[in-house]
Amino acid sequence: MKHKIGIIGCGGIANQKHFPALSKAKDRVEMVAFCDIIPERAQTAAQKHGADGAKIFTDYHDLLAENDIDIVYVLTPNVAHCEISVAALGAGKNVMCEKPMAATVEDAQRMMEAWEKSGKMFTIGYQNRFRPDSQALKRLCEEGEIGDIYYAQAHALRRRGVPTWGVFTDKSKQGGGPLIDIGTHSLDLTLWFMDNYEPASVTGVTFNKLGPTLPPHMQGNGMGPWDPKTYEVEDSAFAFVTMKDGSLITIDASWVLNSTEERCAASYLCGTKAGAELTGVGGENNEKLYINKIMANKQVKIDVNTQAGGVDLFPGKNVEAADVECKVWLDAIDGIGELVVRPEQAFTVTKILDAVYESAKTGKQIVF
Ligand SMILES: NC(=O)c1ccc[n+]([C@@H]2O[C@H](COP(=O)([O-])OP(=O)(O)OC[C@H]3O[C@@H](n4cnc5c(N)ncnc54)[C@H](O)[C@@H]3O)[C@@H](O)[C@H]2O)c1
Description:
This protein is of the alpha/beta class. It has ten helices and 15 strands. The strands form two sheets. A nine-stranded mixed beta sheet has the order 14-13-12-11-7-10-9-8-15. Strands 3-2-1-4-5-6 form a six-stranded parallel beta sheet, with helices on both faces.
């Protein structure tokens, strides 16, 4: 029998990522209900992607009351993730929630408790783990090629990349800016490569110098002009995270920064045997993986061609990360594969990012 899917939030990420991925999995799923507080969005989504007789709701409680739905997608702005995911898990649904898990660590804690009580499957939409370059680097880490990783950098740098759709610059709806929005992907990747989820302390600084001050004609924003008057979140954030085993991670995240670099969902690892650079998405060096090590007593930098395929289960570029994310999620629900993005891992990401904001606010180091 096909899984019956209910979608809550029919905006950008629903249309860009989940509708296309779920549409390609039509032999396994059908989208039977769509909810959005803007009814036209649910209506359009149902017409384009819904099964025959797909239902439309503006209140997510009504969607959750549909007994035949077994999987719910939570694709709303960040602050609503907690309330809706907790209710969905409580209603006995498997839940795919978009990143970040939650806007605060308290919310994330509530989601963890609801998940543990529910006995259901729960994951967070960190699709960057399913890029061919990320998969290849994870495998190299697991095979011990990098050795013990004791210094890492999680990069989420955009020179001018303020999202101008939705509510991304509204603190009350998103909880924060680039740190929680794109820094979350880079930190998730970095912790996963290191397989280290034990933070010891966090020191962070945030800035909001350009977001509220640059007039539209001087912004040069890749996503069109933003409104400086309503820009409430940080425009860049930087952090220094020590781990219990003594290793160190630095984080940089920006939507607006006068930097020459552009690298998102990127990670840089230094281990006892080799180093690795995952250049990430965007910029001139898109989705490259370099390994640096010593061979024949020489320093070499190896360009790992991850676009040509050859990584078990996760072939080359012809497969979208979003489609692999969807397949892994459905396989885990069907008991034929392991869940890759585990809730407790996403919880640690939120715990660290929340501490960066707390440290930036108080000017103090946060010790866990
Ligand atoms: N994985 C990624 O790379 C990625 C990329 C972009 C956005 N996201 C995440 O996806 C989420 C949504 O972002 P978006 O770009 O789609 O934003 P969006 O504003 O385009 O879409 C969100 C939709 O949710 C609806 N909504 C808000 N509150 C609701 C509620 N209580 N019940 C039902 N619908 C509600 C809005 O009307 C809107 O249509 C955010 O958490 C964001 O961080 C993830």
